[in-house]
Design brief:
alpha+beta; Lipocalin; 8-stranded antiparallel barrel; two-stranded antiparallel sheet; 4 helices; 10 strands
Length: 169
Amino acid sequence: MPNPERRYALIALVVAAAAGILVFMPGWLGVDGMDGGYAISFVAAWIAISGLLIAWFFWRRAARLDELLNGQDLLVHWTYTPAEWQAYPGHYRSFSPWESNFRVLLRCGKLLLAWPEGDEEPLVPAGPAAFRVGEEPWLPERLRFGPIVDGQAWGADLSGGQYSRAFTP
């Protein structure tokens, strides 16, 4: 999985390099310092230093994210058997005017969250009966399932919104 923090660090390095070149442009173009050459050089130097600091910041965050994603300093790793996932697929409804319902699908051994509009997002294990909505580890959406009765989850909590299982096709 590509690390977005590393991409941001590389973008900041490119900006810093371009600004570093821009520092010398007034001299190369023959612009007098008092006619704006010093101002251009000063602003370019400020952008270059800022770009380097931002690149350093994102590079450190990318290294930490790589450690977490590669299992270093990992506290827990949740695994489920396919039989455990049989309790979750179904149609969940709420009285919310914004997100009134969704479906949980089990397709090819993976759980998916299907929105009424037709979009589907993968559910990644994040704890006992809890899943992150989407592949990216920084996404905030969480789906937690309620009590399992007769082999089916009776409810779900989607980022604080309560949903009940609807027994519809």
